[in-house]
Amino acid sequence: MNNILPWFALRYSVVIYEFNRILIYGAIWIVMMYSKMTYKSQIVTDLGVYELLIPRFVNEALLANDRVKYFFSLLQMAKEHAEGHDDSGSLNSNERRACGVDDDRFDKVIQESTKIDSEHYRIPQLGSILDHILQCISDMMSPLDRVKIQLDENDRTTTAPVQNTEHYNYNARLEALKKQISLLENDIITNRYLDIITSGKREMGDSFHLLVMDLHKDLNLLQSKVSQESIEGARVYGLIETDKSSVRAFMNGVNQTAKLKFEHVGLGTTATRSEEDLIIQNDIGTTDAHVLVLRVNKLKATLTYTDIHIQRLLFFHSLLQRYNVKWSDSKYRKSNIKDADMYHLSIGVYEATDDKDLYEYLSFLGSRIVFLIDWNRARKTLRNFVNNTNCIEILKWAADRNYGHRAFLKLGGEQLLYGAIRQIGDPSIHYGQRLDEVIGKERTIEFLNFVFKTCYENLIGGGSESLVRDRIRAELASYFRTAEQDVLQKTADHASLLVEIAEAVRNSILSIGEDYETITRNSKRARTWESKADVMVKEVCTSAKKPNVPRAFEQIIMRADDAADHLEEAAFLLTLLQKYDDLEAICDLNEISYNTYRDCMEYFKALENAKVVHRGSPHVDIQDFLEAIDKTIAIEHDVDEINRRVEEALINKVEDFKQFHIFSETARNIERATDCIMKAAVALRDYTLGKLSVSLLS
Q: How far out from the chain centre does Cα 175 lie?
């Protein structure tokens, strides 16, 4: 039991800590979201479309009404308490919070209020209370000051003894009331000033409370004027019948791709009419200064788009390329908000040919907005694997096919890719390297396109995340194998040229003394093949410097290319021998050239077999590979013996020094070629068997 208690205490403390951490982070998130919405509202106002924000500001004004009435009640109850009356109706902290007032200092105001004399009261936090009242009244007046919707005088009900024009001049009333009151020091206020603030009796004259009551009535009336209906999820008000088809077309597009944002907030749409225009606004996401406003006037659709990221703005332009949208030059603006970031503004105008064309454009436009959500995060994630230009290319590819990037981010983003790279376990990949530096730009783009498509299909189809990871790992492994296979293929192509040169040398030897033109032609062909072989060597050596390609291939192909050089030299030497009649010496030289040709064939065969040799390969594939390597080694030994016989025959039978030199150097070059081929084959064997060993260990 003594051991359990400390353990339980520790676990309990951890739970409390995590709970508090979640609360703190949650509060921070709420504050951030509120600040972002405030900023976004200001941007919409800056763009001159305040009408879109009326419903939001009316709701905020009505919340301010709840707060100000709390402060009126607080002052009235503070006075009652100071008079010594019963506190049973006193406000508590729950009622304060319910009204949206967070400052707990107000909880002690009533109990600590005192009466100084028949006309004076001391009320704690009095200055702060009055500041809150004035702010709440300002919030209530804001939508009424700026609204363009006319309020019907017949709908207004009031018992005010003044004329309507004066009664509803709220700014003038507020300024007049503010001049009537003043606070004494030490939170002291007179009875008359309290009445000017809290009185609800019109016969006693105007008051802050009466001003709030009248504001509340007009706010309720305004709310009824802008009561929102919904069209396919869009909040709309004040529309005429012809507007609804345009809103419906736009929302059909939004709803078509909205699922691609998954749990991310955004895509809320508001629509209203302002004079001659239908105005549609989409909030996109939570990004600061990220606003899309569309004005539709007959067949003309004017899109205003703001963004702090110029690259995303240009990306959005590219999404609408199928339509002839005429974009203005992007402007750099600063919001009216103090210390706000600069943002880019772009205006695009589309002139539709008829209603059908307009609705199709609006639908397509609505369907593209989801691809702007979290766009910059996706771009920054991809920059770890490809350059910035290719990042945008991949995002465009995914958007054009309605895959999007949110599924990729939701399933882990860069961690999903890093996990696949770690599981492959290729030692040639170094920390900090971009993937395109390892497997090449084209392959990386192709692979990342596959990743985006696979993530989309998995989340939409309800597949398991483990299956996605396995598919991505398998796909990436195939790209690593492909990079190696490409170099192996080039090495095999080089070997095929080696076979051609060896055959040309053999044919030239058979033509000695009979067909000099064939010898000359074979020499030219050998020179051409040797030049092509040099190009392949450079390509393989360049590829071998990349981390994902084993350096062994550089060694293999360079040794094989030495053989090509020796054989090409032999082909050239034979062009210097125009006439020779000793058939026995020619036969010995032919034998060595034939074996060299066989040696080149076996080396080529070994490379072809190496393409299919990997962990799990059939035993026969590995056997064929090893046999080909073994034959190249055996042939090299045979050629050494044949070369000694050739030298002996030349010394005994060739008396002309020029002919002796040509035969001797030809035989020596052919023998050197087989020696180089053997070294290349051994290097190929060591690499291939070493790779099999690593695979088996892993």
A: 53
On whether the 479-697 domain is CATH 1.20.58.220, my answer is yes
Q: Which of 130, 147, 156, 151 is nearest to 208 (CA)?
A: 130
Three-state DSSP class for residue 230: strand
For 468-489, write each residue's pLDDT tens digit: 888 898 888 777 766 677 888 8
Local structure of 283: helix, strand or coil: coil
SS3 8: helix
Return the CATH number of the domain spanning residue range 229-373.
3.30.1460
Question: What's the start-to-end Cα distance of the chain, in Å?
Answer: 47
Provide DSSP, 331-400: EEEE-SSTTPPEEEEEEEEEE-SSHHHHHHHHHHHHHHGGGGTTHHHHHHHHTTTS-HHHHHHHHHHHHH
Question: Mean pLDDT over residues 195-221, rounded?
Answer: 88
Residue 110, both tokens: 């009533």
Give me the half-sphere count of Cα atoms (radius 13 Å) on the Cβ side of residue 171: 5
Amino acid at 637: H
**What is the rounded distance in angstroms from the CA atom of residue 193 to the CA atom of residue 203?**
16
Asked if residue 608 has pLDDT above 50, the reply is yes
| Global confidence as pTM | 0.56
Extents of the domains making up the chain: 4-47, 51-225, 229-373, 389-461, 479-697
Eight-class DSSP state of 238: S
Please check the confidence at residue 273 and state whether its pLDDT lies above 90. no
Burial annotation 504-516 (CB, 10 A radius, 16+ → b, else e): bbbbbbbbbeeeb
Q: From CA 229, how far away is CA 227, in angstroms rounded?
A: 7
- pLDDT, tens digit (0-9, with 9 covering 90-100), for 299-332: 999 998 888 888 999 999 999 999 999 988 665 5
